[in-house]
C-alpha cells in the first residue's frame, strides 16, 4: 500500500511541476492583433542556367491577418525540335594555337582538332544532321615586298567543307587544318564567323556555330588595323549579335586563355578584352560562352558543348525536390492551408512537424514548363506573446535538389534563406474608463497561480518524503 501511495504522490508531483511550467508560457488573444508585412523579399534560386525558382507573397488580407505565399519553378530553355541540324565548326589556326603546348610536344591545335573530330563524329550520328568546317587566322597574301597584306578581309578564313552529312569528308577537312600548318599569325574571329554564316540554308533548321579559339581577336573584316580593342571588338561583337538575329546559335569556347596576363597595347587583361566581345559565361553576349583550360579541352568540346546542342536532358530537370522549411514561430502561431494545389508533381499534405517542412516533388520539368502552388498563413486565435513586435521570417530556408544540379561542393542541392518578413503588433488601448474595470489577463494572476502550485508541490514533496522514510 505504501509503495502505491509513493508512486501516486510521485506522479502528482511531476504533473504539478509540468503544470507550473505551462502556466509561465504566456499566450494572448490575437483578436486585437495586427499583421504587418515588413519586407516583401523574393526567395530566388537559379538552377543551372535555364531554370528559376521563386517564392514570394502573392496576396494578402491584413484585416483577416493572413497572407498567401506562392512557389513557382520555371524552365526557360527553348524547346528542342526534331528539325534537322546544321552545325559549322569554326576553328582557330593562328600562331598561338601552334606555339602553345598542352603537354610535351603536343600543341593546343592538335588537341583541339582531335576533339573536334570526336565532336563531329558524335554529331553526325544524329539523323538529319550536317556539319561544315571553317578555319581562320589571317591572310597569307603578300605584297611585292614579301610582306603580308590585305589582313582584315574574308580571305582570313577558309571554308574547309560545306555542310555535309558525310563523316569522312568532315574528318578529312579537319585533318587538313593540321596538315596545312600555320596560315597567319593573327586572329580574325570576325572573318571565321562571317564565312561560317554563308554556309547555312534558308530552311528553318536548328543552326549552330561552334567557335574554338585560344585568342582574343586582334583584327576584323573591313581592313581594320592591328588592334585588340576599339574597332576590332566592336566589329566582332556586332557579327556575333547578327548571327543571333538570323537564328544562328553560337557556342564559343575560349581555350587556354591566361586571364591575368596584361596585353601591352591596351593595358587590359586578355580576359577583360575577351569579355568586351563575348560577355561572361554567366551573361554571354549571345548563346553560350566558356573558358576552357588546356586540361579540359577534350571534355569541354566532346561532352559539354555536345550536350548543349544535342542532348535534350541538359534542358530538362528530373527528380526535383523543393523543400520549404518553416521557423517554429510560424508553425506555432499561424495556421497553414494550401490555396492552390501544385499543377505539377505532388506536395506534402501538411507541414511535417518532425523537420518543419513541406516537400514539393516533381518528376520532370521540361523546356518552357512551369510549376506552381500556393499556401496561406493565417494568424491563430491565440498566439505566443513573445512574438509581439518581432520581425518574423515566413520561411527558414528553401532547398532544391535535382539530378542535373551540380554544385561546387559536389552536392546536388541549391539553397536560399531569403524570406518575406512579417510582424504581429497589438495596438495600445488608449480608452480611459470612468470607473475601475476588473482586469483580465493580468500578469499577477499567473504569478499567484504559480506560487499556489509550488506550495502544493512542496506539501506533496514533504508527504512523499515522510512515506518514503516510513518505508525504510
Description of the molecule:
The protein has 10 helices and 25 strands. Helix 6 (231-245) links the parallel strand 11 (206-213) and strand 12 (248-255). It starts with a helix and ends with a helix. The protein has 472 residues and is α+β, with helices and mostly antiparallel strands. Helix content is 29%, strand content 31%.
Write down the CATH topology of the largest domain: Rossmann fold
Unreliable stretches, pLDDT < 50, 5 or more residues?
11-16, 18-25, 435-445
Helix percent reads 25-40%
- The oligomeric state of the chains shown is single chain
Work out the count of structural domains.
3
CATH superfamily placement of the largest domain: von Willebrand factor, type A domain
Biggest sheet, spatial arrangement of strands: 10-9-6-11-12-15
Features:
10 helices; Rossmann fold; single chain; 5-stranded antiparallel beta sheet; alpha+beta; about 475 residues; 3 domains; Immunoglobulin-like; elongated
Note the topology.
Layout: H1 2-24, E1 27-29, E2 34-39, E3 43-47, E4 51-61, E5 66-75, E6 85-92, H2 95-99, E7 101-103, E8 106-107, H3 108-123, E9 129-136, E10 157-164, H4 167-180, H5 189-197, E11 206-213, H6 231-245, E12 248-255, E13 262-263, E14 268-269, H7 270-278, E15 288-292, H8 297-309, E16 317-325, H9 328-333, E17 334-340, E18 346-347, E19 357-365, E20 369-379, E21 382-384, E22 391-393, E23 397-401, E24 413-416, E25 421-425, H10 444-471
Parallel strand pairs: 6-9, 6-11, 11-12, 12-15
Antiparallel strand pairs: 1-21, 2-25, 3-4, 4-5, 5-20, 7-8, 9-10, 13-14, 16-19, 16-23, 17-20, 18-19, 22-25, 23-24
